Amino acid sequence: MIRNICLVAAVCAGPLLLAACDKAAAPAADPAKEAAAIQAQIDLFNSSMKAGDVEKAISVEATDFHSFGGGPDVTSATEDLKGAKESMHDPNYGLVVKADHTEVAKAGDMAWQYGTWDATASDKAGKPVKANGHWVAAWRKDDQGRWKLAAVSNANAWPGGAAAAAAK
């Protein structure tokens, strides 16, 4: 009798368990589609910075965003927004980032990338100084499925090094 109950339970529950497994399995991420969505965030950042709309530029960042290198460490999007607004007071200020490589996790919820940056700022005499360098970044999706920049580390190439960049 117990064997029959177990057999009936296995026969009835088996398809339900398989259906639950099918529903729980996430569809495979399309790396090209996800990389394009991240590139769209970079394009938004660049166009917003060029237009002087730092709120829109910083909107690509996660609230707990972290940035290292190129000046003082940044530990939130709010802190980065404050610094970006201060930079916009410089009439020569400009920043453009370019991704050279993007790699999306198989689950499609995280990614890393590296690329280059080009910047301009005023020196103490008010003349534009150009700099460029490299960066490595981590992206993750927020609770609404949008890609957000979680962290970035910059290789500093400002003339005079990080201390000069921080003093600007």
What percent of residues are in strands? 25-35%
Order of helices and strands: HHHEHEEEEH
The major beta sheet can be summarized as: 5 strands, mixed
Helical stretch tally:
5
Instruction: Average the pLDDT over all residues and give the rounded result.
Output: 84
Strand order of the largest sheet: 1-5-4-3-2
Query: N- to C-terminal separation?
Result: 83 Å
Structure description:
It is a single chain. It contains 5 helices and 5 strands, in the order αααβαββββα. The chain is of the alpha+beta class. The protein has a 5-stranded mixed beta sheet, covered by helices on one side. The longest helix has 23 residues, at 2-24. It is elongated, with a radius of gyration of 23 Å. Residues 1-23 have low confidence and may be disordered.
Helices and strands, with pairings:
Layout: H1 2-24, H2 31-51, H3 54-58, E1 61-68, H4 77-87, E2 94-104, E3 110-122, E4 128-141, E5 147-155, H5 161-167
Parallel strand pairs: 1-5
Antiparallel strand pairs: 2-3, 3-4, 4-5
